[in-house]
Batch of 3 targets.
Target 1
Amino acid sequence: MFGPRWGGGGIGRYVEELITELQAIDQKNRYVLFLKPENIDACKITNPFFEKLVVPAHWYTLKEQILLPKIIQRSGVEIMHFPHWNVPLACPVPFVTTIHDLILLENPKSAKATTLDPIRFALKRLGFKRVLSHAIQKSKKIIAVSEYTKSSILKHFAVAEEKIQVIYEGVSELNESSSSLLSSTQYPNIPISQYLSSPFFLYVGSAYPHKNLESLLHAFSFFVQAHPEVKLIMVGKDDLFYQKLKKEVDEIEIPKNSVIFTGFVPDQVMKELYQRTSLYLYPSFIEGFGLPPLEAMRYGAPVAVAKRTALPEILGDAALYFDPNNIEQMVEIMEKALNDNALMTTMRQKGEAQSKRYSWKTMAEETKKIYEWFGS
């Protein structure tokens, strides 16, 4: 799952940063990285104690369940760290698992979101529950990315509390640039002119149902009637869920070109979007950590999020909060972003300070201690 482009957003970022930091701090233990053909070249080795193996199977598949244990066995590793719950039932060595969230158990709407027919979906759902339960019950240690996620695990599974360790994630350093990339022709697939001509609000992430983006669009549809100059930019991989969201825009009263879908954008562009946006909005119903709004804070965006699950724990008083079911509250915060400059300056300052409390290096150091606990 290495890399946000190949590994599924936040989890891909987590894996990428963990590997980068472990290579910097560990000159003692041997590591084998199991990668897909799509991302094996993107994962750079900078430490002679690290090596790469290719696993020609996608996540959450029967092929992964069958093929990965054999590759693990041949690799000679003594322990495995699975950065997500898709642990093979026949894993031949002891393992630790990172649990980012239990959205598929706690948010029925997202759990039912699928492109499969009812029979295949039912089979996949049964498989998910079996694999998740196995990962939690059989892990020697469980890493939870927040106290909220830890409490969710304890709520849904009979597992000893001391088996779970909370290790917070960090905030990534996006690639530096010496010039404005948004005005460059380097990224012709991105509608550059729309970024530069108007003030804009920003959302970055997936369009899964629990992200509550339909409510965000409806709130923006009311706001934009009074402020037609403001755009809403939505950054995320152009998958089936984003296609559905685009249809939603067509069905509600939002002026043409007021909502801009960019698809994937590189880090350099992402950094500049954070720096320029009037407000970063994150209306998600459920989050295990909240990496996207924390990253937005790191690069100077004032942030407004749903007051739910792990978000208040991670963001503290550095964010503005709203009820994700309350369209009027979202509109009120949009108005403040446009008209209350003093408040926005304060939130930018608080956000940057809050983001500095989280470190990928610290995350890797704490994770390494768990690996070495196996041999103690």
Note: The chain is about 45% helix and 15% strand.
Target 2
Amino acid sequence: MFSVIILGGGKGERLNLGYNKVLYKIKGKTLLEYAADKFINDKDFSEVIIVIDETNYNTINKIFTDKKIKIVLGGINRQTSVCNGLRMVTNDFVIIHDGARPNVGLDEIQKIKENVKKGPCTLYTSVKEATVEMKNNIIMDYINRDKIALIKTPQGFKTTEIKMAFKLANENKKQYIDDASLLFYEMNKEVKLIKGNENNIKVTSEFDLNIMEDLLWLKLGFQKMFTL
């Protein structure tokens, strides 16, 4: 069995929402619900741990009633929030996902489940555009884009390993941008890259939100068409 931690933090400042962006609704469902439902409906997950800020704790409690759900208060940043979630994990393997990625594919989750048993892994997509190193808005050098990967979530880990990595990071007072990088640097672990879907977008801007609305409306439209 697997556990999943879904991070529900995010004030939505770049979206000018005035509230947590994962509570934005598309066709009556929040972004967080779209992200969590994929794991709730997967029989291989026995616990779905949602990490949320104190302001929205009661709201999330009302939205999610499935017996798999565990709701945990987040911390001052992403790293402390994941730590809080990890304390609730009881399974051998844990998958960590951004609640602001509501369009994660079932095929992507399946790939992570299959590969995490062999070692830590993360989804990625390739870079299409030319990539450069810059300074003061001047190109300093061109980078071979074949050597560049855009990291996404979900990311999968053996629970004991990622817990130890977080313990070391806290002791060393180091902050990392995601969980794979934390494991990579703190425990020198090789992290496998798994090709993901380009439409597994993290909603951070108004542009992202517009794309996500189109994607989810289109997907829901197809589902309705095939169930008629």
Note: The chain has one domain: 2-121+153-227.
Target 3
Amino acid sequence: MSEPLRIVLVDDQQLVSAGLRMIIDSQDDMKVVGIATTGVEAVTLLNRVAADIVLMDVRMPDMDGIEATRQILANAVARNAASGGPTSPNDLTPKIIILTTFDLDEYLLAAIHAGASGFLVKNAPPPDLLAAIRTVHSGDAVIAPSSTKRLLEHVITGVQPEAPAEEFNLLTDREREVLLLVAKGMSNQEISHELFLSETTVKTHVSKILEKLGCRDRVQAVVAAYEGGLVHPG
């Protein structure tokens, strides 16, 4: 049996953290390994505790979740570079899921640019929370939950598209087609059915898309597609 996913919770509301911990620790494949109540605490904690996933609140004292996300990921990249690349589980770069409420939508685009791999509303049902953790960890369908897709489109609405970046010219017609379906919130399995391709082939296309666009995950690729005018809200 593989080791459980290591989860760090970052929220200044102790009742929220306690509830999240109860849900996560009830799963055989997950374990909470640390809790922070501020952004500053989170940065310090993630410098000494290895985590696979971080559930990050947006509004907190001292440092908000966006800046904490940016610093945590920058520190992980610096550690990996100094050691010549990840050589142990402690060298991994955690994936960060932003926890938010609908009235904080203005923060979400900045959070994605800071490196967050997804976001979830705080009142999401436990099955949705657990599914988000697993899909973000696997790198697949991080924008698939319907709440996430609605939030993403809500945030992007009103963004003035820039001239398409040169990187988009590097995409093949098939890769553009796959990216459009990713932007609709489809999982690799759903895309494979839509395009009559194997899941392995879809995963290969997604990996090439991320590489060509210089994006670390699917969420950033979708944001880039919106901002570059390849995808339009609605």
Note: The beta strands are 5-10, 30-36, 53-57, 95-100, 118-121.
